[in-house]
Amino acid sequence: MALSSTSAICAGKTALSRTQNRPMSKRHHRHRLSLGVKAVQTPRKPAETVTTPPASNEDEKEAYPFEKQYKDYQTGYASVPGLAYENQGWVTEIEGEIPKEMEGTLLRNGPAMYERGGFVKSYLDGDGMVTSVAVKDGKAYFRNKFVVTEDFDEEERTGKYIKSSIFTAADPRPFAFGQRLFNDLLGGDISKKQNGAYNVINWGGSLCAVDYKKPYALNPDTLETIGHGNCPLSSTTHTSHYRTVTEPDGSRRLVAFINEVNWRTNHKNEDGTEHLGTTNAVFYEFDEDGKEVARREYPYPSSYVHDLIVTENYYVLFDCPIKIDFKKTFTDYLTQNACLSELICEDTERQPLFRIFPRRGADMKVRTAPADYWCYAYHHVNGFENDDGDIVFDTCTWDKFTLYFTDITNPNGKDNFPRMKLSRFIIDMKKYEAKHYLLSDIPCELPITSWDYTGEKYEHMYLSTSVGRKDGVNGPMQALTKCSLKPDETTLYTEEQWIPGEHKFAMEPFFVPRPGKNLDEDDGWVVALVHDARYEDSDFGGRGTEMVIIDAKKFSEGPVARLRLPKYVPYGVHGSWSAEYVAGPPKPDELSRLEELKKKSGNAPISLGHGDIIQTTSRKEVEELDLRKVGAGIGGALLGITALSEMVGQMGFFQ
């Protein structure tokens, strides 16, 4: 099977380069273990019911710009059948060669099942499925396994959705209007389903999946869910955004954070005035053994933040200008015409702000620097302190607020399409002002750099980018792009874009450094999963998934290897590259347990570890939001609304 040629955009000029198309290696009988559940309740949608976009006449007039591309792109959001879809085995279809010196595991997490018993949830409310590709000695082993949260476990037993979710307007609870009025708004009990779907990371001997604030420990050999509170990294409450930094002594740390809003307590400003609501930002640092070695808490005015930047001396957050939509809260939310995330809207009357928190020493004062450019920023590239002591902050900026990331997760080529820009801010640490510089207007998101350069002066970044612009509309997110600039400059010196194919769409990239010392920053590989909307040998309605490995120094030449994964994997949210080889082929203990389960289950599908979840969930975060003692009436309603806002303020989706 021939794969599409690659194209590159280098330094603003379009150049077509072709790689030699080699056929995939001959298929062998794949070692597949079909893993399901002890009593499978999840709907098993037959592959034949998943439709493939019909082949279209290329000369046919489009109803809107990039119509065909957007229809292909949207096929990557198809829900999978659930636990019966779990799979593992060697990757046998490979074009090119996996670098022999590459060793580690690509980890991805994202919503994968969002249909149950006829009830359809929004994509971002789907149940998390971790995908791993373990690479060693030129070979790759694949696994995909659901994150079995307490809520997922209960839904499997009952065969239906039970709790409401953040991004879905429809509510599965009985008497939903009353639940939303008396329980959510008046009572302030806005606990939502935990789906464990937004990131996965392996650090200090702990493999964890996490959603908007709650991590779950996973078995590093099998990806089985162990549970919340099983290890230090899964025992705190933090978002799904991390940074890894190098300390002055050469040791490494993982930095995580949580941003919780208390709308019941006003923040007292230095001038004696008060600000409605107080945010409590908590930053955690874990050493290389996974032990929590630092925790710093800071109160500051209520805000919505999403990601963080860590430099040698500071934590930096981007405070998005948002407010509560009270009208929608008391109308559309009650009638299931709006979900929780839609109750937050743009606040065009205030500037975006940078919140700067000291990382070391006794100084606990939070500094604020307003930006001179009105925007939103969710996923940041990197940041560092320059020679003048100012902070350089690189990020992807949006011109509108959308907690659902509609331009990416639900684009239609009309109202919703990628508009993001690559931006650099320089924060003057004497005047506390942030000046904006546009680096690129090619829509971009999901940025990554070499983790060895986090918080330090760096030169190279890798992003998911849009392809094409027509009649004022940008094409869907499809390509991978390498952008480079000098640390002390505000202009890119190169911008290379690799397009995976006409019907293929790259997901979030990751950088894998080449083993060795004293290497260049970009000496390594960029790896990513790629959705194939027209896979001819698909068993899931024409859908397929590849993993690509690109030499970062020869980026525009395209992959040195393409790996065809055994199963279709929906678009994920976030993930990481683990330098430690985890989730490889089954060890004797796993094989024996699988064999025993097969004997007991007969022909029914099985799911290793399902039912063994350790439910040690701390309910502290829920108790802090519990306003039921306040009572009903107008006061209770307003406090309930602020509790809803509190939930949104701390979740910052894609965290």
Model description:
By secondary structure, this protein is mainly beta. It has nine helices and 41 strands. The strands form eleven sheets. It has a six-stranded antiparallel sheet, with no helix packed on it. Strands 4, 36, 37, 38, 39 and 40 form a six-stranded antiparallel sheet that branches. β28 (421-428) and β29 form a beta hairpin. It is globular. The relative contact order is 0.18. Residues 1-52 and 611-655 have low confidence and may be disordered.
Radius of gyration from the alpha-carbon trace, in angstroms: 24 Å
Which percent range describes the beta-strand content? 25-35%
Shape descriptor reads globular
Distance between the ends: 38 Å
How many strands, which pairing sense, and closed or not: the largest β-sheet?
6 strands, antiparallel
> Could you estimate the helical fraction of the residues in percent?
10-25%
Number of helices: 9
**On the 0-100 scale, what is the average pLDDT?**
84
| Helix and strand composition category | mainly beta
Number of strands: 41
Sequence of strands across the biggest β-sheet: 2-1-35-34-31-30
Gist?
This protein has 655 residues and is mostly beta strands.
Please describe the structure with a list of short key phrases separated by commas or semicolons.
655 residues; mainly beta; six-stranded antiparallel beta sheet; globular; disordered N terminus; disordered C terminus
